[in-house]
Design a protein that fits this description.
binds flavin-adenine dinucleotide, alpha+beta, single chain, Glucose Oxidase, domain 3, about 600 residues, eight-stranded antiparallel sheet, 27 strands, FAD/NAD(P)-binding domain, seven-stranded mixed sheet, Glucose-methanol-choline oxidoreductase N-terminal domain-containing protein
Length: about 600
Amino acid sequence: MTITLGACASSGAAGATVAAALQFFAAAQCLLNEPYPRQADVTDGSHFDFIVVGGGSAGAALAARLAELPQYDVLLIEAGPDPPRETIVPGLRETLKGSRYDWNFTTVDDGYSSQALEGHRQKQPRGRMLGGSGSLNDMVYARGHPVDYEEWARVAGCAWNWTNVLPYFMRTERMTDARIINNTELMKFHGTRGEIEVSGAASTDGPNTKLLNAFREMGFKIVDDMTYPYSIGAGRFSHTIRSGRRDSSLTALLNKVHTNNLHVLKDTLVTKILIENNTAVGVQALSDGKQLHFYADKEVILSAGTFNTPKLLLLSGIGPQEILDELEIEVVQDLPVGEGLQDHVMVINFIAAENGTCERNERAQAFDVIKYLYDRTGFLSYSDSIGVYMPQNYKDPNVPYFAIYPSCVPQALITVDQCTSILGYTNETCMKLVKANEQYEIIVLPVVLLKPRSRGKVTLYSTDPLQNPKILSGTFSNSADMEEFPDAIQTALSLVNTTYFRDKAAHVVDLSPAECGREAGPARAACAARAAALPAWHAVGTAALGAVLDARLRVRGLAGLRVADASVMPAVVRGNTNAPVIMIAEKAADYIKEDHQIYV
Ligand SMILES: Cc1cc2nc3c(=O)[nH]c(=O)nc-3n(C[C@H](O)[C@H](O)[C@H](O)COP(=O)(O)OP(=O)(O)OC[C@H]3O[C@@H](n4cnc5c(N)ncnc54)[C@H](O)[C@@H]3O)c2cc1C
């Protein structure tokens, strides 16, 4: 994940103007169209072979793979509509958070963590549209580390170890990043014949080269490939961007299906799985206020994401007995649904520096629009996000434990609206940040714990299928997660002592809440980290392999029901989760074909 404050961010006036201008010109010239699948013409009570619930990163990939089998009918049901044009333009990626294309999930106030956030709640944006969160994410290509998959294999069997998941990453990947494709060692781990393009930044003129040089001065190795597992350090990420447009399992796979056996039903909310004699036989759904039923002769596959997959399972009587009893839902299967929620923990730090530090005139946004529309180039056409991986103290130096995702915001671009809507900080904290930005450029330094031990929970507020689920983040509920945070933050902030940033009069902007003022040193940093903790939007684990699912992604104790999305991860990987989710969908497609003895 990357935090993009300033340029083109959601409710900022500049961002809104750019988005509106782009919409206007693009609509006039049909430049930003995508061939989304047409709305299925299906009648209530219809039968299909497979029903996939949720057309997000996993669901779009899985439905496309199943539709490659011409003799089988596939129904994909998606709660949201086609994505709006902003999703196509990489530089407008921040404009959708908080919009009607976002589920706008929030966590409950646990009285312990994130107490400095508005309402003491963390925001958990997720895409509610075709492509799901893959239509609004930051397009960073990451996979986690081999040790993550060895951990999965311990609970789910060796089919999930690094050796056995790597070919599934490579299957979908079309690597074109120039820093990687000419390096034989790096290319041992990349695919070039898959559908989703993984590219390098079109330009590296921005401030990130300065930032990377500073991290080099701090002792970090500069690496060409942030996914290379045997040598970690600081570097530029590759992104799922093709010719200046977002690439995803929707644009690269689902949109390319032109066979009549794929039926895509949009704006339709699945409300329950229909289960007879311990077998999933179909789904109940709501569309335009009408209740509909669709039947799956072979399987129902849930790909509704980490928050909505457990919600659907619980609504259907699959979950912990005591929770279902409390909600008066008849128990179909007593399983630990919702219990393993895990996300990276993010604490954002800010450094102010004199003007000129960012070295980019972000105000030339009108010109950016013209460049983008003319030949899909310029600032809007790519992302040049960078990261710094840090190991745990006294542990393997090539296994990441924390990450820093630095970026630079020019003077007077951050607005209170953006800050509250993207970060969830209070008005008061955001005003302090905006005030600092009125005078200085701001280096944003999110420090992210990649291997948390804490677990949260997803349950229901009620049996109303229209209500979002109840999310308890569990952030810092395991005190081990705090142990090295103050040190990691200190490392990030020592950027102010590097040659370039010292010359730019860089200094820390302290936004720690008043109640941490009584503390000093690491205790103060820990207090501030706990109070301002955010999720990094990589939530997983609520229908986990080995707990809720068997090793082939089937719901334990039931026939005809499988899960394929981020919820199946037994533990969050040490990196962004989109590519791992698509890898899971690819494996699910193979399991389904094998289990039904479908040979292509
Ligand atoms: C803001 C943000 C930025 C991110 N940035 C990155 C990044 O740069 N790189 C990276 O690797 N990862 C990133 N991620 C994470 C990554 O995008 C997700 O892990 C991944 O998209 C999850 O895929 P999924 O299929 O599990 O869920 P989703 O993609 O969220 O798909 C779930 C789909 O199911 C639909 N749905 C839900 N309930 C129902 C229902 N009842 N009926 C019908 N449909 C339903 C939803 O509308 C949605 O389309 C980011 C995530 C967010 C939120």
